[in-house]
Amino acid sequence: MDAATVASAFKTAAIRAPDAIYCKSATGSLTYAQAAGAIQSLADELRADVQGRSAALILPNSKAFLIAYFAVLFAGGKPALINHGHPAPTIAKLLGSLDAAVVLSDHEQGKGTTRLLNDDLLGVLVKPVDMNGLIDPSTSEDIAAIMYSGGTTGLPKQVPHSNASIIATMERGDWGWRTRADEVWLPVAPFTHIYGFLMGLTNPIMQSGTTVIPERFQPDLIVDMLETEKVTIFGGGPPAIYQAVMASSKFADAKFTNLRICPGGGAPFPLDVHNRWEAATGLKIYEGYGMTEIAPISINTDEHGVKPGSAGKAVPDTLIEIVDLETGDTVLPTSEAGEIRVKGPHMMTGYTGNPEETAIALRHGFVYTGDIGTLDNEGFLTITDRKKNVIFVSGFNVFPREVEEMLLTHPAISGSCAVARAHKRSGEVPVAFVTLRSDVDVANIMAFCKHNLIAYKLPEDVIILPEMPLTPAGKVDRTVLQSSLKAQS
Question: Which of 65, 339, 372, 374 is deepest in the core (most CB within 10 A)?
């Protein structure tokens, strides 16, 4: 990319295609020129307060989010992307540690000054843009986004990314999911999540593409939009999203004639999901891997190779190593499982105000991911599991993904998740949660497990759910499932 900053990348897109549709939602659409005018109006309003300071965005995926993000950049501020789905106490704590000059939100926030904004309020901001006056004050080293990582067991950690880091992220995303002119993107992950940020906010502007924003994730709605909006790139995200879309009553009869790229990420994809999606649509899911601290790390691509079930090969100028779980210092041989560590030009420099967590995650110049995986002799990375999700049964390591993949080969099972339950003799045992596509009883599933798994990997129990609980990022919420087991004990 020629652009050195994210703001200048947007400006280039707007100059290139001012009349192209930039973003569209149920409330209407904005061309690039109209969006630039709204960004300029809001930036002029915010500049005196936010220049050199952070500004919090607490908005759902919307046109307003996109306008607010770029307005803060053009005003010389640092956008802090706080998930709109967080409960109020969590938001209050995040704002308390941020010292934001202003909060841009669709409702009043308890701390600091709130600038109310939503799609309905954008109208007054849309004015003719003066491109010469739309000046990007930032440098490549200035902060382009403050993102948040983790938070399942504590307060999410601040991850500031510079313009240089985000531009490198965009370039590597485009290396994996090659885009063309006139792309129509349908993102479903929150724009505050690194995957949703890439699919909904940054990479669509690289070719002056259109971002179509659903009001919510509802499978029937997504199927309709994939057809009617002539979507070319479906930012589906984790496997649970693809599974839910395939479970839609409208999916079997849908014709996605314009769809050509189906990225996947956020959690490892079972082979069953790859196979069912390709059988139904004729399209591959191009699975990749990344995290807030560095993304993307690897991607499956037609040019460099596709291996279903893997997360692909390392993106350019990025080194992936597998190291021992005990010390993290010994690089392991090909095909041996260990912790994944990675480094590249788009990696974080640390967690703001959190030297302890920074010291754990950043060692020897690498980001230690906390994920377990293997590298094969062709360079394909396969994610085995999260380090913290490994189930320890009588001294054996049980990787939940192996149990989950096996369960998904049962013709009646549509979704699966295996978590640990404490056990007096074994230490821990697996418990499997499943969702169904056709009727089957627990005894049948247990018999299927016994036929396919060694004894120490067998689930002690199988629990049938109407649907899997999901995190705001669309991943299966293991914490909720784990908590439900504790509540039953």
Answer: 65
